[in-house]
Amino acid sequence: MSFASDTKAELCQIKIDSKSYAVAQAYGVLLYCNTFTADEIRIITAADAFAQTLPRLFRKAFNVTFDRSPDREAKGKKSFIITDRDKIRAIYSAFDIDADTTPVLHINHGVLEEDGQKIAFVRGAFLAGGSVSDPEKSYHLELSTTHASVSREAYAILLDMGFSPKEAKRSGSSMLYFKQSETIADFCT
After folding, report:
1. What pTM did the predictor assign?
2. What residues contact residue 76 under an 8 Å CB cut-off, 6+ apart?
């Protein structure tokens, strides 16, 4: 297992008690996952712990199930897919987004008013679109999304939380990253 997978497994052990925290964490997952459109939600992960917690998170946050999900024993990358329009509309409405008319995704800060909600959002973003290198080799943690506006707005959230990420673009994705060991340790805790 990789260091990133171990880190994600540890983050998946955090119990989410309230629906608002589940919604916030799921929001981070959705904005940093592979596909979040009015036609499809597709979350792909190689992290087993994240794959196991994802269905529970979506039930708690939105009371929806995935239309397609992998077998629990599946190896390698696992895909979770929702294509049912009613489910997608229910998810979008939790964030006050109109699935039929919103061309660009933005972060609805009304969903992230409490510090705990911001932490849950960032945790979800890391679980879906983050990676961290083994500190024995180098220090690097990043969050990557295809939504440039989301990356800019997440930058502001991280600043509000006391972090100062760097920004970069790579292969059509916007990234926020850290290279300082203390900052990475603080981020993970």
Report:
1. 0.93
2. 46
